[in-house]
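Work package 3, deliverable 3.1, input record:
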Amino acid sequence: MSAGRPGYSNKKRSRPIGLLLRRMGGYFSGFRKIIISGAILAIFASLIDAISPLVLSQGIDISLGALDAGNAIIFLAILYLGFRLISFISGSFYTRVIARAQAGFVNKVQQDVYSHLVDADLSFHKGEQSGNVTSRVTSDTEALNTGVQVLMDIAGQLVLLVVTFIVLWMTSPIVALTALITVPVVIVMSALYGTVGQRTMLATQRAYGMVSGQIAENLSGIQIAKAFNREKETSKQLLALNNEAYKHNFRLTLFFTFLFPTVGAMTVFIVAAVLFVGAGLATGAAAVLTIGELFLGVILVQRFMFPLLIVSLQGSQVQASLAAMDRISDVIEAEPTLTEAEDAVPLLPSSDGITFEDVTFSYIKDTEVLSDVSFRIEPGTTIAIVGATGAGKTTVAALINRFYDPDQGRILIGKQDISKVTFQSLHGAVALVSQEPYLFDGTVLDNIKYGNPDASDDEIKELCRVTNACEFIETLPEAYDSVVLEGGKNLSSGQRQMITIVRTLAANPRILILDEATSKLDAYSESLVQKAQEKLFADRTTVVIAHRLSTIANADRILVFDKGKLVEQGSHSELLEAKGIYESLYQTYYAHQGVDELDEKILTKQDLVAETTVS
Amino acid sequence: MEEKGRKKYTTATSYILSGMKKHPFLTFGALVLTVIASLFTALPFIIVGQAIDVLRLEGFSPLFVSQTLLIVIVGVIYLAMNFTAGASWAAVITGWERDARQELFESLQDHSMAFHDQVDSKKILSISMQDINWIRISLNPGLRMIIGSFSAYGITAIVLWSISQILGIIMIAGFPIYLYFALRYAQIVDPVRRQRAISMENLTSVSQEVFRGIEVVRAFGAEEREKQKFNQTSLNYANSVEQEGRLSAFFFPQLILILITTGTFLYGSTLLVAGSISVGGLIQILSLLIAIDAQNFMLPRSLLLLRGGFVNAQRIIDLLNWQDPLIDSDSTDTQLDFTGNIVFENVSFRYPNSNGNGSYALSNLSFQIPGGSKVALIGGPGGGKSSVLKLLLRLYDPTEGTIKVGDTDLRNVPSALVRKTVGLVEQDVFLFKMSIRNNIAYGCENASEDAIIEAAKRAQAHDFIMETPNGYDTVIGERGMTLSGGQRQRLAIARALLQNPSILLLDDSTSAIDARTEYLMRRALNEAMEYRTSITVTQRLRTLIESDLIMIIDKGQLIAFGPHEELLKESIQYRQIFDQLPETRKMLETVPLAGGVA
């Protein structure tokens, strides 16, 4: 789709780990102190945790041996309490401090990614589903966040493991070595997790995705399902998918039900092993181990299995978060091809009228949508652009808005090249009503004000009155304050289109571009909109792409496009007389909007010009 | 319909427990096994203590060796118990999840359109996926771990009691305090966690709508405004993350456990010094307490999960128990005549909305359509055209007045029967991601191949269907398989033809089509309107002229009603429509407006 950009599907990472980690580190630059203090706290807490059982084992030995045990035990109890409190407090502070760093980190990443996405080329957005783009901002930054958390946790767990091992070693190297039996077991477990576990997890996710997709589709077609009495069948379809998801989820749960108790059982076995080995060392004439130390071994050896397992399982979590960083890097590194010139100047208020000079444009290389198009629209005039499907009409509108830059040639407003003016001033002067009415979440009034946030409510209402939009708005449940749901599912497409038209008129642009802007309105409402537009924008430059004869016939001039070329121009009557492409178009597309009966004879004549809708 | 058979849930608890009630024996088994499994978690430590005593008394004796072996055997039983318990939980709870999702969907599907108009489908989707998922997690592992933790605590208390009653008392007294603090903690953390989830949802919806409408954002030069809006939302999210960290950092119930462990250590040691317990006893006590410490670390998280599960359940119950204004009839009256006249008597209609009142979409509409006539319906956007169609499909009932078909009040006809006899071709044709054949047969699943092809032919769709890659088996919506508006509409006509309704409702507002498509469409429409009452929302002038009756509805009111010639004479609004085109102006000139211009 978007040229040169790596796809976003389940591809492998494309950047080295070092780079990704550095980049993650970059976002942390403002929180270095917090991070370091957090790390110190985490290590400190782990350290204390690892050595506090030492106190208990000393206590046991003292109770068994010393004569004056009382004071020593009280001292040890206080020491133990102190250790636990310190570990508790530093652990808590760690969580608190790190949450602050994480919050700041996520916020920085999100703002950075979002700002890149909003400025990304339109071709990028056209090539991606909006849900996919959104997940760059939401789930990917969350995955990064989790990754950071996991890395910290792993660091803490590793410290705990190493210190525990050292304490064990100092107690008895043989017991310490016995504890190492855990390592191969954990390796086997994490291998199982990496293969069977991951596969099951993926299958489960996929099955859940199917269920979710089915519910989403059923909900959006609910009215049709009701109209055709299909409720039972949709339920049956869902049940099949639901059962499939159940099957996979049950397997997944079983897998974890197997994994964790197995690790727990292994811990019990190792306790038995340490007890056995330690007993050998603690008995006989050459006893090298005290009972307290044996107890210590039993306690510490249990600390091995789960941290080790967690560290190895969380490896995949870190992988996922690196992959997220990689996808985010794709967004951040992508240079928009369309940028504001460094020396961009505002569009002058006196600049008006549109000129295309030898404009050639293609969305995909070597497939020209417009070739060598030149025309001039005088300030204050209305021109209509006509042509069959695929002639390049919408592209002309998009280029005037500078959604894309032409491959060759230039576009001027007044005497200013639009590639050399600021976006802000260009979009302030030019307004487009596009084919598909798009509304934002919010009230009807919010939507109309989108183009002109400073407009007063009264101004908006007056505008609605002039365009006759007030009639339907006032019948909405809460009139102007009615909330637009899900892009307008609670409105008809004609109503949505009315709102987008009023929104654009409210922006009060100098140049108005209407791309099939009234296609979803009935003839009567359309005529009212046209009258309002004539009244409000009488002497403004207007470009209309239209299908309705009445609109075209009323334009000052008509530009006829065919396969990307400007082939004819002139007024309606001039062009009809010329008996060229416009005349055939007229017969194919517009004449039948009248009341004449169609018959096969006219049709065969027109098949030469008519673009078939089947592609 | 099935509505009545559906049980209503009154409380979140009964909703959550409904799955467990369905499998009482399995659930009971799972509970017992979970408790027994906890016993086997504690048992190794008890044996270790005994073994150390044996070691001190007898040295490396056969008894000691057999006790070590016993630990291994206990480990094996522990594994077996835990696995069986886990599998039973999984069977009960995963099954519940499936049933709950199915039940929720089916009952929401039965809710009338009034419900679906008001409730965001994204919300329904997220409740049926996420919320149910969270309840499942709150039960397994949530509830399972809570039961495990409690029984481990209980077992430890019993063991300690058997060693020294004072230690037992410390444990038993500590428990309610611990539980109280754990619940308090959950209560504090729960709202911030929820807040965090909400701000994440906001973040998603804010960015998704901007990416969807990126062209509009560009066209209005609103990028900076959108970035600012997002930054604010992102900042809110960051704040909630930080707040959650701050409030959840100090898990103060842990302090109680630390105090209990230290106190027991101190008291146990003095007992050991005094000789009233053995060193093995002390080791038992300490290792059991340390084990509880580790296990209870998860308790607050499980409590949070369980608490959250109740909130999720409440959200689901609210959807399930929604009061439907449309009360379905279960009459089996066979005297219904859908070929009869359609009569609207003082019909007023207001879309049900959350705050109870709003303005009327239709007010005081009265008219009579003779059976078998072709009616064209025109009017401005939001004037009430589609409301009339929806009422005839009984997707809603009128707020006031009655609609009668062949002398029967629609309120007394089961909605399923209404929808069987009233067909619809909607404006934005909705096709499902399935084969063209199944899409056409959507209204009657058992249609024969011949009937399907016949319907497609009559709807002028057969030819283009044959040109698609797999003909009738082509799946719509798959890679590149898109259809033009005109093609979609003809499929919808075929779908309606196969259903063979007595009343056909057509919302035909497409425009911008070439003459060939228009020609095919007219032929399809003519086929569709044959032998039945039809109401067509249209913009085609030709259709207006060919209709028996024309109805203009604007601002929810009937403006004009009558045949073409009559309206041309009497209605200014009707004449205005023909005033748009040069050719039709001639037609107006031949018919002067009766009664002068108002």
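DSSP finds 22 helices and ten strands in chain B.
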